[in-house]
């Protein structure tokens, strides 16, 4: 297959494999003669009789070969003798290569333990927080010259585990996370949209074959709420969220009266003191060090402290905010106002530069356009101006547009003499 009808272009094994793979996944039929020619071409590429150079100067030969082998396996044209000699470092494969390897193992008779191991590696890479889904390897999964995108990987992951009973409880969260990756109602590339469409359709065939009608009942203690489902043939809004007050006794139950199997997303909210750190996609550690201190044992009015937050992100994310409380009357240094000491506020940024900083009378907030997976630090200096014993709220890190990804760290009380 070629990207354009021009004799000056060579055939592309990547495009050929994609067409054959997508045709099989979508239930489409490739004309017999064309299909046979494409399979012969891919087989020659896998066996080394056809040499196709990568359009990008990188060592991607193994990945392109895996993609071609996965396409052949889908059409029953990959003998086991071609798979046995492979010596793969599966854990180091990008996610697209891992999914190709799972496709091969699921369709060629090999050791079942290999397939379980590959799926276990896939599970270890999944990062599902609330209604989002990502991969821990996304920063190296964007192989655009191989027609690979992270959204497409997310859809392919669902298709790879949809029929596995061990993944039955994970599939609903994964499909919700897949739709959570959309922007303006679509995924980022045409290839990802194709995979996403197929994944949604296959998921619906397994889990949502019957339309949802009737009503659902949410109960907790004596409180009971009934939710009426709109006509599935009408263009109507879905039911609004149901708020159920806390009850000292009883259990939360969700019952459906009607056809279909609707999904329920349960979220618990409570105003309680935070006594232990919480980690849901992020982890934060807070440290306080003296910059200018009159006494080594106690904080006094006029002392300057440096606050350093060490933050660990489980996955790449855009627009992340870091919020840290300060005692009443304290002043955050570094604003450049008259009398503000540049010397005392040196090194206040940490090792990652925010795009915007708010210094108000209650909190320090730093906004980051993009935070990759890994660890970084945020720091600032504060002068204590008011005496007293102060109990402060938590330090918090949050993905602004995916609030299910956050971390909170309790802040110890501050005594200023």
> Segments where pLDDT lies below 50 for 5+ residues?
none
Helical fraction: 25-40%
Number of helices: 9
> Major sheet: order of its strands?
6-16-15-9-12-11
Structural class: alpha+beta
Q: How many structural domains?
A: 3
Average pLDDT, rounded to a whole number, is 88
Q: Return the string of H and E elements.
A: HHHHHHEEHHHEEEEEEEEEEEEEEE
Q: What is the tally of beta strands?
A: 17
Note the beta-strand portion: 15-25%
Largest sheet: 6 strands, antiparallel
Radius of gyration: 27 Å
Overall geometric form: globular
Question: What is the end-to-end distance?
Answer: 77 Å
List keywords for this structure.
single chain, about 425 residues, alpha+beta, Immunoglobulin-like, 3 domains, 4-stranded antiparallel beta sheet, 9 helices, about 25% helix, about 25% strand, globular
Structural overview:
This protein has 417 residues and is an alpha+beta fold. The chain contains 9 helices and 17 strands. The strands form 5 sheets. Strands 6-16-15-9-12-11 form a 6-stranded antiparallel sheet, with no helix packed on it. Strands 7-8-13-10 form a 4-stranded antiparallel sheet, with no helix packed on it. It has a 3-stranded antiparallel sheet with strand order 4-3-5, with no helix packed on it. The radius of gyration is 27 Å and the shape is globular.
